[in-house]
UniProtKB/TrEMBL annotation:
GO terms for molecular function: ATP binding; enzyme regulator activity. The lineage of its organism: Bacteria, Pseudomonadati, Pseudomonadota, Gammaproteobacteria, Alteromonadales. It comes from Shewanella colwelliana (Alteromonas colwelliana). Belongs to the P(II) protein family. GO terms for biological process: regulation of nitrogen utilization. The modification O-UMP-tyrosine is found at Y51. This is Nitrogen regulatory protein P-II 1. It holds the Pfam family P-II. It comes from the Bacteria.
């Protein structure tokens, strides 16, 4: 089992959700986050005053999946989230040692 964490641009969330649903993946957790990478923020003008925005709004998706689904899931996220411009995001893949569904007590793949 793997945990896929994807950081994407907020306006791409619906596209990614539809792509994931098309794979039959039933659940994900979405968190609004802020951060920066190579974009390094930008300058904005508000009421005539310039100020630096260091952290840009992003969306973090956490998706637990079976190991055999990882490559297809990553390809789907990349295809749906890519704009071709800086700041498209990153995907992290980590191992899951155990998953437990609280309601039923199911373990691992059955809990996904």
């Amino acid at each position: 089992m793997k945990l896929i964490s994807a950081i994407i641009k907020p306006f791409k969330l619906d596209d990614v959700r539809e792509a994931i649903a098309g794979l039959g993946i039933e659940g994900m957790t979405v968190t609004e986050v802020k951060g920066f990478g190579r974009q390094k923020g930008h300058t904005e003008l508000y009421r005539g005053a310039e100020y630096q925005v260091d952290f840009l709004p992003k969306v973090k998706l956490d998706i637990a999946t079976k190991s055999e689904n990882v490559e297809l899931l990553i390809e789907s996220i990349v295809a749906a989230a890519r704009t071709g411009k800086i700041g498209d995001g990153k995907i992290f893949v980590t191992d899951l040692d155990q998953v437990l569904r609280i309601r039923t007590g199911e373990l691992d793949n059955e809990a996904l």
